[in-house]
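Morning. Coffee machine broken again, so started the prediction first thing and wrote up yesterday's gels while waiting. Chain of 367 residues, entered below exactly as on the submission form.
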Amino acid sequence: MTNSSVESNVVVVEVQGRVGCITLNRPKALNALSLDMIRAITHALLSWREDDHVLAVAVRGVNKEGPFGAFCAGGDIRFFHQAALSGNPALEDFFTEEYALNHLIHTYPKPYIAFMDGIVMGGGMGISQGASLRIVTERSKLAMPETLIGLFPDVGGGYFLSRCAGRLGEYLALTGLTLSGREAMSAGLADGYIDAGRLPGLWASLAQTPFENGASVERWCASHLSMTATAPSWPTKEVDRVFGLETVADMAAALAETDSDWGRSTLAALRQRSPLMLAVALEQVRRARSMGLADDLRMERELVRRCFHLRPGAGSDTAEGIRALAIDKDHSPRWHPATIEEVTPEEVAAFFVPPWPAHAHPLKVLG
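Came back before lunch.
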């Protein structure tokens, strides 16, 4: 068996036995995706797609102590902020290439196995939700928290959240709720559970086991997992009742009348977030429910263009949200509009006006 390795400083790409292994290696940033990382992963997947020697792909992250412990905390939001304020065209490339990678993973012809140990948020969900096997542990923390930074759950979030049962997709998209590994399984966002201490042994076995085909690699990994989901920790009927309402303002009013800890904490979570982007995210998830993956990613590419350019530079809620969370760290974003109740349908509709004609869409080639 041949083992080969290509190491960039931020992604380690290896063939171990007959499995293509990708390790995200930017631990100080919790493996937040940079454009270089997106390109390295894309290059590996495209080269292995046509390589008969590689039967399957496995992806993991490292933390400061070594392999596992952190998967991927999302996109590099500090870069987004700097690029938005300086007009750096690499910002456009980042989202175009990231969403193309998300599509490649969802449609990959070989098993793609995601070891989702530790933090898996935003862009980390984008490179794991399309996996044929999504593995979580007791350390897993999954979320789409984008509304907190004045963004929306992108990287295919409209597609995979809208496929959750009932109105769970709206609930997760708007509140950014963090799920444990077992909770992610009950939400339909993970397939199997393993104790984190067993991950290194399972990963090492990929190089040493004589697999005959891709399906046998996936079966081998699945045989080490518990596939039993626990009961949801959220009140399913209340989630469906509240998050099935027509507008975010309606939801806030309903939550204010709900005499429960869940109602109070959920309303508090919504009040922290960009009112405008809550409304945009709600519309996104509801539109995505009747879309295929490629159309959803094209819609999200249009939305992210609007996030940075409807009100350019520091005027966008996205730039302001990142400033408050990650740059100045004052956690006091000045949202515009300031409250959920002030958002108008016209402000939301502006995000869904395509900024390009179909023939010039940066993701027009997605199948």
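The radius of gyration is 20 Å. Going to sketch it on the whiteboard this afternoon.
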